[in-house]
Amino acid sequence: SAASDVYKRQVWGRGSKNATDILMQGLEKLEYRGYDSAGIFVNGQETAAKLVKSVGRIADLRGKLGIDVSGTAGIGHTRWATHGKPTEDNAHPHTSTSGRFILVHNGVIENFVELKNEFLMNDTFKGQTDTEIAVHLIAKFAEEEGLSTLEAFKKALSLIQGSYAFALMDSEDAEVIYVAKNKSPLLIGLGEGYNMVCSDAMAMIRETSEFMEIHDKELVVLTKDNVTVMDYEGNVLSRESYTAELDLSDIGKGTYPFYMLKEIDEQPAVMRKLIATYANEDGTMKVDQDIIKGIQEADRIYIIAAGTSYHAGFGAKMMLESLTNTPVELGLASEWGYDMPLLSQKPFFIFLSQSGETADSRQVLVKVNELGLPSLTVTNVPGSTLSREATYTMLIGAGPEIAVASTKAYTGQIATLAFLAKAVGEAEGEVKAKEFDLVKELSLVAQSIEATLSEKDEIAAIVADLLPTTRNAFYIGRKQDYYVAMEASLKLKEISYIQCEGFAAGELKHGTISLIEKGTPVLALISNNVEVAAHTRGNVMETVARGASAITIVEEGVAREDDTIVVNQVHPYLSAISMVIPTQLIAYYASMQRGLDVDKPRNLAKAVTVE
Ligand code: F6R
After folding, report:
1. What is the per-residue pLDDT for 249?
2. Which of 282, 302, 528, 544 to pair with 519, CA 20 to 30 A apart?
3. In the 8-state DSSP scheme, what is residue 509?
4. Closest Cα to atom 5, ligand 1: which residue?
5. What DSSP assignment string belongs to 295-312?
6. What are phi and psi of 520, to 5 degrees?
7. Average pLDDT of span 106-122
8. Which of 123, 90, 85 is nearest to 104 (CA)?
């Protein structure tokens, strides 16, 4: 597409307090998501209305705010550039030529070039974003055709194709915020004497725990006392609000230098919390009977996800197949949206998503819903889009994951799927499922994680020794270890910028081994499977013979004296959880030792809400 522009961030407004404070606090709460520029607009009652933008961090924007930048309503935004460089001109909010209309936008307007050519040939633009086209379009319909702001907005929406969450203000009536949504996340927050709207509940929970959903192709007119939801024809819709159980106290970094380390450390607690959530005192499973029935009736499970969540799906595949006797197929969300393969007769879809907002996954869910097929979302965020729109939800309950690099969500997803797999297997009368003492085994996993976490200093030293200046590296493994290798390499590359491939150990000699040079780090994952372990060790020797610097991460049962890192033994169904922990720490220390911003790697965002 001719695509453009931005992605996740937030938009808001409110009544009685200083809108600038609320906007800035909200933008700060969402900093973890990744962005490269930011801006706010506030109406001014005593002073003139203010628009302030800045490239870089929220702190830079704060530095540019004068004390006169205050008001009763406003909109703010952090931009993650996809089209048009991260410059002040491309930062949101965008304004119309006259300055009357002010707009922030998440998403991608696919036909912005066509709209520009058809309606705005005589306009001059400050930047390159599609959002600027949208605000000019609204202004044209209002100023040249004499339409009201609402009608002008509606007319623009009828022409705009693509994904968006818009918040629009008209400086001639700057107590009102006009909102519309298609595909991009957006949520209303309700308060006494104020209302707000934002792409993420997290930024609003300091102010309210009362929320209202907006569906695709709906428009909202927001004032401090009123929220009117309507469809694009202008029919007013009634919508119930709900209370969300979000805990602000989870968001602090405490004494940790980076969120990522805190989140790595939280994983034993996440495992134990999952036991409390999904197992009864007597060890039986506490999983929704409808989900179990849904899977029992299915002839195939399709797991759809992206990135780390996709790797978590692989980590759980063998266990799910073995315990439920149902084939499991993995799908990359960004591919399946366009290239859905021939499905089985009775499919059951599982969407894995930490954020529950990943646009690639959601586009598959939309198709699954159109086909009337059953689905389950396994997510860390209650009330997220994927949770609301799937038939069923299972929550990971890992607490907010703030670091861009996902850690506890990966291990939490696999553990959550373990409860599901066992519950379905037991319902099927599968002996293996009955014999699999998940509560005990997951407790052992928690202990294994703790044992690895107590070796942080040793792991930091290994990293300092092996990876200080390297440009590339390999993780290799077979079976489960191969899946962990894919995740381990993603983690290393995304935060340390070391190019790293996760490779099936046996496949290396079919071409890729030509990349091994003197000193190339090769990190081998070897879990407790005697036959496979011997083969992987053989593959390590092949790379060492060609100059590689090998390190071995080995499970106790097959460990030897000279192995680099030894991981406590766990049940083979769960080894992807315990084996990934050293690789998370390796990535963490590689990034930290290079002096990088571990939590906010360049070019990345936490919730990927564009396709
Ligand atoms: C990597 C990472 C990403 C996400 C991916 C999917 O550390 O975090 O690869 O896993 O963008 O995100 P969710 O799980 O929110 O759907």
Report:
1. 58
2. 528
3. G
4. 307
5. HHT-SEEEEEE-HHHHHH
6. -60, 125
7. 93
8. 90
User: Residue 203 has what pLDDT?
Assistant: 85
φ, ψ at 393 (rounded to 5°): -135, 140
Which position has the higher pLDDT, 80 or 520? 520
> How far apart are the C-alpha atoms of 275 and 269, rounded to whole Å?
10
Tell me how far the alpha carbon of residue 328 lies from the centroid of ligand 1, in angstroms.
20
Beta strand spans in 478-548 (E): 499-504, 521-526
Is residue 103 classed as helix, strand or coil in its secondary structure? strand
* Segment holding 231, helix H or strand E: strand 227-231
Give me the residues paired with residue 168 across strands. Answer: 103, 178
Q: Report which ligand 1 atom has the smallest distance to the Cα of 386.
A: 16
Could you please report the per-residue DSSP string of 350-365?
Answer: EEEESSS--HHHHHHH
pLDDT of residue 3: 27
Q: Is 384 in the pocket of ligand 1 (CB under 6 A)?
A: no
Give the span between the Cα atoms of 318 and 328, in whole angstroms: 8
CA angle centred on 466, ends 460 and 472, rounded to 5°: 115
**Is residue 406 in contact with ligand 1, taking CB distance under 6 Å?**
yes
Tell me: pLDDT of 1 over 50: no
User: Is 405 close to ligand 1, i.e. is its CB under 6 Å away?
Assistant: yes
Residue 426's alpha-carbon distances to 116, 295, 329, 347, 476, in angstroms, are: 59, 12, 21, 20, 34
Q: How close is the Cα of 207 to the center of ligand 1, in Å?
A: 28
Closest residue to atom 7 of ligand 1, CA basis: 405
The pick from 260, 360, 608 for probing ligand 1's pocket by mutation, whose C-beta has the most ligand atoms within 8 angstroms, reads: 608
Q: Whose alpha carbon is nearest atom 9 of ligand 1?
A: 307
Look at residue 5 in the predicted model and tell me its pLDDT. 27
340-359: pLDDT as tens digits: 899 999 999 999 999 999 99
* pLDDT band at residue 204 using 50, 70 and 90 as cut-offs: confident
> What percentage of the chain carries pLDDT values higher than 70?
95
Does the C-beta of 308 come closer than 6 Å to ligand 1? yes
Q: CA dihedral defined by 265, 271, 276, 278, rounded to 10 degrees?
A: 140
**Comparing 540 with 48, which gets the higher pLDDT?**
540
Mean pLDDT of 97-109: 93
Question: What is the C-alpha separation between 559 and 546, in angstroms, rounded?
Answer: 23
Structure tokens at 402: 């703030």
> 306 C-alpha to center of ligand 1: Å?
6
Residue 13 has pLDDT above 50, yes or no: no
Closest to 605 (Cα-Cα) out of 52, 198, 131, 10: 10
Cβ of 307 below 6 Å from ligand 1: yes
Query: CA 587, CA 496: separation in Å to the nearest integer?
Result: 7
> What is the pLDDT, as a whole number, of residue 360?
95
CB of 353 closer than 6 angstroms to any ligand 1 atom: yes
* H or E element in which residue 107 lies: strand 101-109
d(CA 600, CA 227): 35
CA–CA dist 299, 322 (Å, integer)? 14
Assess whether the C-beta atom of 355 lies below 6 angstroms from ligand 1: yes
Residues 403 and 260 sit within 8 Å (Cβ to Cβ) = yes
